Amino acid sequence: MKNIFYISIAFLTILTSCGDEFLDRENLFEKDLDNYYQNAKDVDEALVGAYSCLAVDNAQNHPILMANIQSDDCFAGAGTTDPIPNDLDKFTKNSGEDTFLHIYERCYQGIFYINTLLAKIDQATYTDEELKLQQKGEAYFLRAFFYFRLSQLFGEVPLQLEPELLYLGKSTPTEIYTQITSDLKIAIDSLPKEKYTTAWASVNSGRATKWAAQALMARVYLFYTGYYKQPKLSTLEEGDVTKDMVVEWLESCINESGHDLIGDYESVWPYSYLDDNWAKDGHIETVFAVKYTNQGVWPGNPGRLAYSNQYCLYIGMRGAEYAPYGQGWGFAQVSPKLREAFVGDSRLSQSIVDITLEVPDYEFGLDRNREETGLYIKKHIPIVADDGEGNVRGMYYNLYGGVQANMQLWNMQDDIIIRFSDVLLMHSELTGEVAGIDKVRARSGMSSAGADLETIKAERRKELAFEGVRYYDLLRWGDAKEAIEEANGTIVKNSGVDESYQVTFNADRVFLPLPESQIRLSQGNLVQNPGWE
How far is residue 406's CA from residue 321's CA, in Å, rounded to a whole number? Predict the structure, then answer.
């Protein structure tokens, strides 16, 4: 079926498959596949390596950024020298054959780490069998997560389940989602019922939990049954996963997890740091997130660029710094149609920076910026403030320091992948009950509006704006073409000049093209996605 291509696989193949002369030499490495996975510490190190694959060095391949641009909530933005966002926004492929190779590689690298771990974990010695069960649960969660990410990005992809070099073609959606479902079922059954507490989060924030697995199963169920028009999810074992089972898991997450909504919607997001009102990363509303650190470095140095959150940088204000909003590359300009959808909703000012209200000295057209709307993503925008010594620094640099005081490296806020409000809204969508959606609306000062599907759609768009779910919601509801093309005729500024925005939704290109290099390496087994041949 497809070639698994990573450097890590090639490296491990060299370690384990070279000739006798090489193997007779002294092992200069502290650990290899023969002496690794001896205890829980080794397994945890391998898990951390897999978690690290959730972050990307190439921010133009950041899954949340890509999903925002593909949706109707954002235009491409960026500059005239940045072709990738325009490819995403316009369903075109002009920027090269391997445009999305990085995210493809990162997912399969994580899958390889997990496949190796699962093949070796039983050789490890444990004094705590519950810990072993938990670590297995985390591994199965991560493999399911990586495959769900791949399937949403690329559609049909190779299903690689062994830690070896294979040449695989595409698996069918049924095969892929059956594996995802089976892995998540194991994760749900294996992970402990540990409730969220601030103390627990200080140690475990960013780790997979039973509650994250339950919530992800609901997201998988909604997408698969919606987009592929299937009545249920299948598993590798006997028995299917039905809507009733998904609802039961959501109710477990709601009632037993310890997660809840923060009282003030604004406090969820780092910009509320400016008013000393921020709940901080890893807060009670975060069911699952990708973590970052203050150790981001340039390529070629020890460490990785992806230790810092490059997504924040890429959506910052292009061409200049307008404190308290930091500078960036101007990607994902917010559509005025979304602002209209927010009218009368307090989340408008809490989700979107409107430069006419907050940045009156903003200058259009700097650095050849295109598709400018004067609206920026507020939830994730870089925040800068005085460091107490007269220097304007990023808020995270002020809080924690860093390797360098550099605007391209100092962002480190969580990518919140699953938020508790999404759990509540998924429950209302699946059951028709108002409790979940009413709780979400009440937090923002709004009364009950019912739980019919159209109300759910409108609520999800506003509550979860810019969190990487809107595009996939449109696909599973069958609303993508109408919603995306509604923006046609919107006036945007390209290099400061007014022009009319135009897009044609291409139903044959809802998924991204596979990297051509991987097709060539597959020994004829892998073929390009329909619409991109």
Answer: 13
- CA dihedral of 148, 293, 47, 158, whole degrees rounded to 10: 30
Contact 307, 299 (CB under 8 A): no
* Backbone torsion region of residue 238, taken as left when φ is above 0, otherwise alpha when ψ lies between -120 and 50, otherwise beta: beta
Q: What predicted TM-score, i.e. pTM, was given to this entire model?
A: 0.93
pLDDT in tens, 154-185: 999 999 999 988 899 999 999 999 999 999 99
Cα–Cα distance for residue pair 509/100, rounded to 1 Å? 14
Distance CA 512, CA 87 (A): 10
- Is residue 83 within 8 A of residue 97, CB to CB? The reply is no
User: Which among 515, 471, 474, 490 is positioned nearest to 63, based on CA atoms?
Assistant: 471
Backbone angles phi, psi at 490, to 5 degrees: -65, 135
For residue 229, give the amino acid letter.
Answer: K
Per-residue pLDDT tens over the stretch 440-485: 999 999 999 999 999 999 999 999 999 999 999 999 999 999 999 9
**Nearest-angstrom CA–CA distance, 111 and 125:** 23
Q: For residues 125 and 38, is the Cβ–Cβ distance under 8 A?
A: yes
Tokens of 381: 């925008």
DSSP H or E segment with residue 234: strand 233-234
Give the C-alpha separation, 69 to 274, whole Å.
Answer: 28
| Structure token pair of residue 173 | 């959606």
Instruction: Look at strands 497-500 and 491-494 and give their pairing.
Output: antiparallel
Characterise 432 by phi-psi region: left (phi > 0), alpha (psi -120 to 50), beta (else). Answer: left
Q: Are the beta carbons of 170 and 14 closer than 8 angstroms?
A: no
End-to-end CA distance of the chain: 18
DSSP 378: T
Instruction: Say which residue the tokens 């993503």 belong to.
Output: 377
Q: List pLDDT tens digits, range 226-276.
A: 999 999 999 998 899 999 999 999 999 999 999 999 999 999 999 999 999
Residue 195 is classified by DSSP as P
Beta bridge partners of 77: 331
CA distance 139 to 115: 9
Task: Give φ, ψ of 288 to 5 degrees.
Answer: -155, 140
Token pair for 313: 């940088």
Q: Which residue has 């204000």 as its token pair?
A: 317
